[in-house]
Amino acid sequence: MAAVVVPPPPAPRRRTPSTWVRRGGLTTLLFLLPLLLVFGVFSWAPIAQSVVMSFQQTNLVGPVRFVGLDNFAQVLGDPLLWTAVGNTLWFAVLALVFGYPIPLVAAVLISEVRARRGLFSALAYLPVVVPPVVAVLLWKFFYDASPSGVFNTVLGWAGLGPWQWLQNPGSAMPALVLEATWAAAGGTVIIYLAALAGVPAEQYEAAEIDGAGIWRKIWHVTLPRLRGVLLVTFILQIIGTAQVFLEPFLFTGGGPANSTMTVLLLIYDYAFASSLGGDYGAATALSIMLAAVLAVLSALYLRVTKSWSAS
Amino acid sequence: MKSHRARVAAALVLPLALTACGATPDEVTADGKVVLTVAMDAGLEAKAVEAFNARVAQFEQANPDIDVKPQEYTWTAATFTAQLAGGTVPDVLTVPFTDGRGLIERGQIADISGQVAALPYASSLNPAVAKAGQAADGKQWAVPIAAYGQALHYNRTLFTQAGLDPDKPPATWAAIRSAARQITERTGQAGYAQMTQGNTGGWILTTLDYAFGGRTEKVDGEKAEATIDTPEMTEVLSALRAMRWDDNSMGANFLYDWAGINQDFAAGRIGMYVSGGGNYGNLLTQNGLKPADYGVAALPLADKPEAGVLGGGTLAVVSPNAGDRGKNAAVKWIDFYYMGKLTAQDAAVADAKTLAETKQPVGVPALPVVDRATYDKQQEWVRQYVNVPLGQMKPYTDAMFDQPLVTEPTKSTQEVYKILDTTVQKLLTDRGADIAALLKAADAEAQHTIGRG
C-alpha cells in the first residue's frame, strides 16, 4: 500500500430543497422516474408482495390469513424439499464439471484458430439463438428412448444401447445437464473470447521465446489473465444452476419418480401444480429462502475470492 | 436531505400502491345492460367463431338486458387462480370435473345453486354426473355440460398387424396383457402405454384401481381416509409391473402426459391406452389421427361388486367476481348455450351442423348429462350430421351404459394424483421397486395431504 496523502474533503455545504432544485435535482428525478416506476411495478413491488405472502395463507381470492412462520416450517418439513435440494446440487455439480470447462476450452481453441474464427464463434453461439423451448423439444427427439430415437440410432451403429436417457432415474439428470450445457455454452464462449482478445500478444510472444508450448501458454498466460472473468462466470453459473427450472419442467416434469425435481420446480409445483389456487404461501416462503441462500453464498464467494481476482 | 429521502421513498411506494387496485363486480353498460363475459374456446375456426357470435346475437335478442362479450379462454389449472385474482377470467367458463369440488370448497367459483335449481331440468340431471358440481351439502354450484367414462383406446391397424381381431378388443386385464405382448413382439411398438406425468399418472392409476374394485379414499362426513395401500391397488401395480418388466410391452416412454400420449397414439406408436371415452375429438383434430386406425372398447372391470368406471366431464361455472345480476345472466347463458344443445332440438341441430361444416367430429361417445330419454332424443336429432366411425366405437358404446360410473376422489384430488404420479413412475422406471413399500409410502403421504387439505 503506497502512502498517498489524500487532501481532506471540503466541508459539506448545507443542502436545502432550493439548492437541490438549483443543482438539477428535479431534472434528475424526472429522468429517473420512468425507471423507478417500471422497476417498482414489475420488480420491487412483486418482491415486496412475495415477502409478505410468505407469511400468509392465501388462495388469492378468499380472505388472507397471517400464519407467521408456518409456511417456512411446512416447507422445511417437506421430505420432497431435501430431494429437490439434493437434485439441484447434483445438477450444479454436473454442470460445473461439464458445463464450466467446456466453454473455456472451446474459447481457447477458437482463439488459437487463425482462419475462420468468426465462423467458429458463430457456430458455438448458434444454440443460444435457438429458443430454449424449441431446443428442449428438439432434444426430446434426440433422447427418445426407443431404438428409433436419434441418439439410440447412433449408438445402435456402434452396437450399443438403446439407452433409457430421460426414462431412467439415474441417467435423467445427466441428460438434462448435457442439453443445458449445449444450450448455454455459446454465451460463455463469447465472454471468454472477448476476454481473450484483451490478452496482450507480447505476453504470448515472450512465452514462446522462453520455449513455452500451447499448454504452458494457456496455464501461465491465458488463465491468469482470465481469472477475473472466470470467477464471475463461476458465481453466475452457481446462481443459474441453483435456479434450474426449464429443463426439468419441459423434459421430465421432475420425474421419473422425482429424480429431476429441483428447488425451482418444487416452488412452481407448490404454487401451480395442485391447481385450485395452490399453496402460494409455501411457494413464496421457499423462494425467499432460496434467494437468501444465494445472496449469502454470493457475498461469501465475493469476499473469499476478492484477493484472488486482483491480477 | 430528509425531503429528498421522502421523495425517493414516495417514488418507491407509489408503484406498490398502484398495484393494489382491484376489480368491481357486475359491469353495467351506459344503457343499463349487465355485461357478461363468456368463455369461447381458444383457437376456433373462423366459421365456428361466426357460429358462436350468431348464438350470442340470438341470446342478446332474447335477453335485451344482457350484453354478452365473448372472450377466448381455455381453462388451465396452473393459471386459473392468478387470472381470477387479476380479474381476467370470464364470468362464465368451463372446468373439468376433477377440479369442481375443490373450486367449490375454496370459494373460487360463485354459488349459483339458487339459479340452477330453477332450471326446468334441474331435477332430472344424471345423479352420477351432477355430483361433480355439488358442494358437500348437495347444492348444485356448477352445471355439468358433458360427461364421459374412461375407456380403452386401441389402434386397429396395429391389432391387425399383430394378428389380433380389431373387432374383438380385450375384455379382461389378462387379455390386455397378452394382446400388449403380441403387439410389441410383432410390430415393435408399445403394446400398452400409460400416462404418468402432470397428475395424469394418478388419474389413470385411480381409474385402474376403480376397475379392479378399489377406491383411493374413504370419505365419512368431514373425515377422509386415504385407501391406497389395498389389495386392489397391489393387483393394479402387479399387472403393470408384469407388462413393463416381464413382457417389456409398455414401450420406452414412461413420462407421458395427456397431450404426449395422445400424440404418440395418433402416430401409431401405441397399441392400447386408457383415457376418457370422448378422446376421439382431440386425437382427430389436434393430433392427426387416421380414423381407420381408431378403436375404443369398454374398460375391463374385475368381477367384484365395487368395480366401476371412473367418470369425468366438464362443468360450466361462474366466476366469484360476478354479482347477483351477473350470476342470473350467467346461468341464463349456461342454459342457453351449453344445455340448449342437449335439451332443445333447434339448438342441437344448429350446433351439430356447424361442427360438421367445420369438419369437427359429431357423434363422439358421451354419457348423458340429463336423463336417458332426453339423451336418446338428442342423439336422434343430430343423427344426420354424425361423422365419426361409429362402428369402430361399438365395443365401447355397446357397454358404456351398463358400466357403473364412479366419481373421482373428492378430497385433495389433484394433490393425491400427484403423489400417485411418483408411484407409477417409480414402478415403471425402477426394476427393483417394491410394490408394498411404494403403496405404504403413497398411502401415508396421501393421508397427510388429505388431513392438511
From TrEMBL, chain A:
Gene3D superfamilies: MetI-like
Subcellular location: Cell membrane
A GO BP annotation: transmembrane transport
Domain ABC transmembrane type-1, first and last residues per copy: 85-301
Topology versus the membrane: Multi-pass membrane protein
Transmembrane regions: 24-45, 89-110, 122-142, 180-199, 226-246, 280-302
InterPro entries: ABC_transporter_permease (IPR051393), MetI-like (IPR000515), MetI-like_sf (IPR035906)
Gene Ontology cellular component annotations, sorted alphabetically: plasma membrane
Keywords from the named record: Cell membrane, Membrane, Transmembrane, Transmembrane helix, Transport
Superkingdom per UniProt: Bacteria
Location (main, coarse): membrane
PROSITE patterns recorded: ABC_TM1
Family: Belongs to the binding-protein-dependent transport system permease family.
Protein name: Carbohydrate ABC transporter membrane protein 1, CUT1 family (TC 3.A.1.1.-)
From TrEMBL, chain B:
Keyword entries, A-Z: Signal
Signal peptide: 1-22
Superkingdom classification of source: Bacteria
UniProt key word Electron transport: no
Transmembrane keyword on record: no
Pfam families: SBP_bac_1
Protein name from the UniProt record: Carbohydrate ABC transporter substrate-binding protein, CUT1 family (TC 3.A.1.1.-)
